[in-house]
Write a structure and sequence with these properties.
With about 350 residues, the protein is α/β, with parallel strands linked by helices. Helix content is about 45%, strand content about 15%. It has a nine-stranded mixed beta sheet. Helix 12 crosses helix 13. The structure holds 7-methyl-guanosine-5'-triphosphate and S-adenosyl-L-homocysteine.
Length: about 350
């Protein structure tokens, strides 16, 4: 166990941080102005805008559980400048990986240079090998005959993380449920090979699992059978954009979305834009669709997701529904009704930041 985690009293296998956003654009502008005024005073306290002070800009925006802030600065994933990202200590991992793929022994030979497909194949094999090594992280019952295809390998949510999300989702569903006599239902809009679906089925009365790919959906059904949970899952093959509107009357308490991030190369983007990098620039539409099915929405996204773009999506939604604001919202900008808030959670596995979840709920 790392000394930091031991000190924090956290398990080494899995920890999660909650970052609560609670700030409007106006507040941000005011804070930015305040910060500019303070810039020179702050230099003595380690704040230096020219040398990476943007960390601190973000830090002021968010409220963080202190002990985890000490463990690892969660704001390193939120930087918007690519140069900054490259300079960051954590970045060596990605650079190392890139080297590994382009400079392997085979690739240096003339023969290999001449045949690009060999390089691609090698890269692919190495990549799948990396995921295969983590097979028990993905499914503890892997040896019972779990089925996974290529996209499944690089997209499946590790079991301990999926279990944690399921617990959070269930608690959100129960808290916001009005009719406690009806079943507690979750929609897994991108079910893949079933990493999340299976963990949801452990806690929820009913799970609706949707995926565009019939083969992968069948794998999810098969895998759920291995866990003895397929009975409570309804599998639907189709495109979320056409399937979800028809599910509005299904009494869905919470929607979970783990869409494709553009393949394993998603990590090479310094910042992942939830508007443009999801489903051919349909990120905003996806968010709105999820919220139209249930106000309780969870998005599972890359670790380097631009959180401010998420905030903008929420604010836009607020503006569209101005009736929900308080009577004096323009001036107020600070009451519960006018303030936007959502929770960002980092998912760590063996000291590695794997992904984030963003929880939206009333
Ligand atoms: P990763 O960064 O591709 O690999 O995925 P790895 O080896 O787990 O990370 P490393 O930094 O330790 O090397 C990290 C996690 O993100 C995976 O376990 C999946 O849960 C999730 N994930 C990755 N991709 C490419 C996708 C995707 O396209 N969609 C979804 N929903 N999840 C993904
Ligand atoms: N959470 C899953 C992984 C999801 S990967 C797990 O743990 O196993 C993303 C999935 O979204 C892929 O299986 C892909 O087939 C599916 N998908 C992509 N576009 C889609 C769409 N428009 N509608 C529904 N599913 C889609």
């Amino acid at each position: 166990m790392s000394p930091e985690l031991e000190q924090a009293g956290l398990p080494s296998s899995f920890t999660s941080t909650k970052v609560v956003k609670n700030s409007t654009a106006k507040n941000r502008k005011k804070k930015a102005q305040k910060k500019r005024n303070k810039k020179h005073n702050n230099k003595s306290a380690g704040y230096d805008e020219d040398a990476g002070g943007e960390h601190f800009n973000y830090a002021e925006e968010f409220k963080v559980i202190e002990v985890l802030k000490e463990y690892r600065n969660p704001f390193t994933i939120l930087m918007s400048k690519s140069e900054r990202y490259k300079e960051d200590d954590d970045c060596y991992v990605e650079e190392e990986q890139e080297q590994e793929y382009t400079e392997t022994e085979d690739c240096k030979s003339e023969e290999c240079d001449a045949d690009e497909s060999v390089v691609t194949k090698k890269k692919k094999t190495d990549l799948l090998q990396k995921y295969y090594q983590q097979r028990y992280d993905y499914f503890s019952l892997f040896d019972e005959g779990i089925h996974i295809d290529e996209e499944g390998w690089y997209s499946v949510t590790p079991e301990v993380i999926a279990d944690h999300i399921a617990a959070e989702a269930h608690s959100i569903a129960l808290t916001n449920k009005t009719d406690h006599d009806t079943p507690v239902v979750v929609l897994d809009a991108f079910c893949g090979v079933g990493g999340n679906t299976i963990q949801f089925a452990k806690r929820f009365d009913r799970v609706i699992a949707v995926d565009l790919d019939a083969g992968r959906l069948e794998m999810a059904r098969h895998n759920a059978q291995i866990y003895g949970l397929s009975e409570r899952i309804r599998f639907i093959q189709g495109d979320v954009f056409s399937v979800l509107p028809d599910l509005a009357d299904e009494g869905i308490d919470v929607v979970f979305m783990s869409p494709p991030w553009g393949g394993p190369d998603y990590i090479n983007r310094p910042v992942f834009c939830p508007r443009n990098d999801l489903l051919e620039k349909r990120g905003v539409e996806l968010f709105q669709l999820g919220r139209s099915v249930s106000k309780n929405l969870i998005l599972f996204l890359p670790r380097q997701t631009d959180i401010f773009a998420i905030a903008e999506m929420v604010q836009h939604e607020k503006k569209e529904n101005e009736n929900n604001n308080c009577d004096d919202c323009e001036k107020c900008n600070n009451c519960d009704k006018c303030n936007d808030s959502f929770v960002v959670e980092q998912h760590w596995l063996r000291n590695r930041l794997k992904a984030i979840s963003i929880y939206f709920y009333p």
